[in-house]
């Protein structure tokens, strides 16, 4: 019983008891022979039931899903510890500057060679593990749809996003002959790459080290303001550098 209310009339008393029906747990569609079992016991969420299916679990990962999570957590581990090392292993500074920390790609002098770990090698390793994680998860989505007799629309839509990821981090740097043209791992640093490196190249990137670490970025079609006086116009294909405020006023 969740709760009760009592309505009093002169000669009648009516008790209304609130109750909630608990549906039976659904284990999911039967899996073909040779497949790994689903993991976890189903649970129900009252608030999820307000907008959709209230049952959570069980979850099927399978061989490719398990490998994808292992590779993905390895990539996050490499990126996170390199960011932590960049602030001298200071947890407070790590949390404070998290949005501005990055794992940068190798310098242009290394080209497409394998650099030392401290000069871009960790970036290559993190990129390898992250790419393998994404590709293995794509295989999982394709195989799950195939095993359950569903179409692969989701898989091919996901493949389009993967192609975009590979174009910026793998195909384009190889065609330009340098890993330095790839995207760094970091929240604001990868946005800076979109603003400067993509239109003008990595060697023409302005020095942002003296900039106050505060940026307010808006959605597509509006202005993005920088504390240092830089401004950009957000376009569907990325951020295009428009110069400093002084240069714009002189036009």
UniProtKB/TrEMBL annotation:
What would be the name of the gene that encodes this protein? Answer: pufM
Q: Where are the transmembrane segments?
A: 59-81, 122-142, 154-175
GO cellular component terms listed in the entry, alphabetical order: membrane
Chief location bin: membrane
Kindly list the places in or outside the cell where this protein is found, as annotated in its UniProt entry. Membrane
What the record says about family reads: Belongs to the reaction center PufL/M/PsbA/D family.
Database matches in InterPro entries: Photo_II_D1/D2_sf (IPR036854), Photo_RC_L/M (IPR000484)
Task performed by this protein: The reaction center is a membrane-bound complex that mediates the initial photochemical event in the electron transfer process of photosynthesis.
Q: Report what the protein is called.
A: Photosynthetic reaction center M subunit
Origin species: Thiophaeococcus mangrovi
Give the keywords, sorted: Bacteriochlorophyll, Chlorophyll, Chromophore, Magnesium, Membrane, Metal-binding, Photosynthesis, Reaction center, Transmembrane, Transmembrane helix
A single Gene Ontology molecular function, please? metal ion binding
- What's any GO biological process attached to this entry? photosynthetic electron transport in photosystem II
List the membrane topology term(s). Multi-pass membrane protein
Keyword Transmembrane helix recorded: yes
């Amino acid at each position: 019983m969740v709760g009760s209310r009592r309505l009093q009339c002169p000669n009648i008393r009516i008790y209304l008891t609130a109750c909630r029906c608990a549906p039976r747990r659904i284990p999911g569609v039967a899996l073909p022979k040779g497949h790994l079992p689903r993991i976890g016991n189903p649970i129900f969420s009252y608030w999820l039931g307000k907008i959709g299916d209230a049952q959570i679990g069980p979850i099927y990962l399978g061989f490719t899903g398990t490998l994808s999570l292992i590779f993905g957590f390895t990539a996050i581990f490499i990126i996170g510890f390199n960011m932590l090392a960049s602030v001298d292993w200071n947890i407070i500074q790590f949390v404070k500057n998290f949005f501005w920390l990055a794992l940068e790609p190798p310098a242009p002098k290394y080209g497409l060679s394998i650099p030392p770990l401290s000069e871009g090698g960790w970036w290559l390793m993190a990129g390898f593990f992250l790419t393998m994680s994404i590709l293995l998860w794509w295989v999982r989505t394709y195989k799950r749809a195939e095993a359950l007799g569903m179409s692969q629309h989701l898989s091919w839509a996901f493949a389009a996003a993967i192609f975009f990821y590979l174009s910026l981090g793998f195909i384009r740097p190889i065609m330009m002959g340098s890993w330095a043209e790839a995207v760094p791992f970091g929240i604001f640093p990868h946005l800076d790459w979109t603003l400067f490196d993509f239109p003008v190249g990595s060697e023409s990137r302005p020095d942002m080290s003296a900039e106050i670490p505060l940026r307010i970025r808006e959605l597509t079609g509006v202005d993005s303001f920088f504390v240092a006086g830089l401004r950009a116009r957000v376009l569907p294909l990325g951020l295009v550098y428009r110069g400093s405020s002084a240069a714009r006023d002189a036009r």
